[in-house]
Amino acid sequence: MQHKRLAQEIATLYGKLSEVEGVILGGSEASGRGDTYSDIDLYVYARDGHIERNSRAALIQDRAQVYELDNRRWETGDEWIERDSGVHVDVMYRDVSWIIDQIHATLALHHVDLGYSTCIWYNVLHSEALYDRGNWYAGLQHNARRPYPDALVTAIVRKNHPVLRKSLSSYLRQIESGVQRDDFVAVNHRISALVASYFDVLFAVNRMPHPGEKRMLEAAEAQCKKRPADLRELMIELIYGSDPVVAANELIDRLDDLLIQEGMLPRRM
What we know:
globular, 2 domains
């Protein structure tokens, strides 16, 4: 509750800037999974995605014990540690038209990626508007609350399933190659990519928007009624075990069984 009050206080300050169209609470605080160690994740929207740096700096400097401006490692953002409470605040700046286009591309055009295809959709559904000029974000959320399109399920499976094991450049082939060369860095990198595409398929089969990188396994266990048996044990074996090739093959076999049951793969001969 304390984090929520603090988030609203910061949102109100951003809402006073003329460029700002919305301040949206995301992350664990918005989804109800926050605790005393949680950060505050805010998305600040403007019509062109740009908010004057001096205005942002003035807002932050008044309340931060330490801060970073104009981080551009992923999305453009600022972050700081609150002087009074020690809470970490992470703010990302986004263009209003960009988020509208993202939701349209996912739900109407069924554009997908290798891993995390529906994360932006999940983000919109599981966020809370703390400031919403003209209620445009409420309208976006209303549009996003729709049944999972069958065509989107198909597109995600077609994009992500072959690269698990079937294609010549599949993640499994690259893991095998890395093991043969004793290149544990490459193996780790390809395991991460395999897991991302694996869960992209699993969440799609369950008509569940992808919750993102954190707590994927917990989300699957809690919300995916259709999932491979022993999923947790097999994931642990893949990531921590001595033979990632065997573990990956077993995981993919179990996923294939599920896709066959769903009529999305032909039955084995």
